[in-house]
Specification:
single chain, 198 residues, alpha+beta, 2 domains, 7-stranded antiparallel beta sheet, 4-stranded antiparallel beta sheet, 11 strands, 24% helix, binds 2-acetamido-2-deoxy-beta-D-glucopyranose
Length: 198
């Protein structure tokens, strides 16, 4: 005797659905595991930036509302990672005062190994940089007070390297403030720790 199965498709439909659900779950678990293992092996750590020294030379605010100055900055870039090295393919450093950019420079591309500290000596010059009225006023005030509070920003295009794998480009942004630069002949400087975003 053949048993009657009037709705054979009824039985297979939940089967397919279950199959899809379990496969989906399986893939999610697998991907999570791979990510977790990668994370545990690589243990990525944020890149660290500090401003170790900052000086200003040739500061001159003229009657034409323009600034001449040379900012001599010592940036310390620390790659704390044991397994990740960094290609810096492009880097620019800007100096800001009161939300106005007053000086700008580019840093030559470099490769940073694991656990490496790279000291960047950066010279950013303001050459007849036109100033907003309010900026000029507070800059004059700071000049006579003997100290100017700046913000140093870094923008870089980086790629990370783990083993033989290189990632795509990311934009690294670094914000260092307040960077207090003294006009005294024998300036002292306190290290400034920067915020780093990728
Ligand atoms: C600023 O520049 C003007 C014109 O070049 C010059 O006369 C003046 O001495 C300079 N001031 C300082 C503080 O260097
Ligand atoms: C970091 O790398 C640079 C360039 O390869 C090298 O000159 C420097 O000595 C390294 N610094 C440390 C602390 O390893
Ligand atoms: C500022 O620098 C520019 C370019 O070097 C120069 O022409 C100008 O005279 C300077 N101004 C002052 C006040 O030093």
């Amino acid at each position: 005797m053949v048993r009657e199965r009037p709705w054979p498709s009824r039985r297979s439909r939940p089967g397919i659905l279950q199959c899809i659900v379990f496969t989906g779950l399986g893939i999610i678990v697998l991907v999570s595991l791979v990510v977790l293992i990668f994370w545990l092996v690589v243990r990525p750590k944020a890149l660290e930036y500090t401003v170790d020294d900052a000086r200003v030379y040739g500061f001159n605010l003229t009657a034409s509302h323009a600034l001449n100055a040379t900012f001599d900055l010592t940036l310390r870039s620390y790659n704390r990672n044991h397994r990740v090295s960094v290609y810096y393919d492009f880097m620019e450093v800007t100096v800001w005062y009161d939300d106005q950019m007053v000086a700008f420079t580019e840093v030559a591309p470099f490769y940073q190994r694991r656990r490496n500290v790279t000291t960047l000596d950066v010279i950013a010059a303001a050459t007849s940089t036109p100033l907003l009225g309010s900026v000029e006023k507070s800059l004059k005030h700071d000049r006579s007070a003997g100290k100017v509070g700046l913000e140093v920003r870094v923008r870089a295009r980086i790629r990370l390297k783990v083993g033989v794998v290189k990632t795509k480009h990311y934009t690294l942004r670094v914000y260092c403030a307040p960077v207090l630069v003294s006009f005294s002949a024998t300036p002292t400087f306190d290290r400034v720790y920067c915020d780093v975003d990728i």
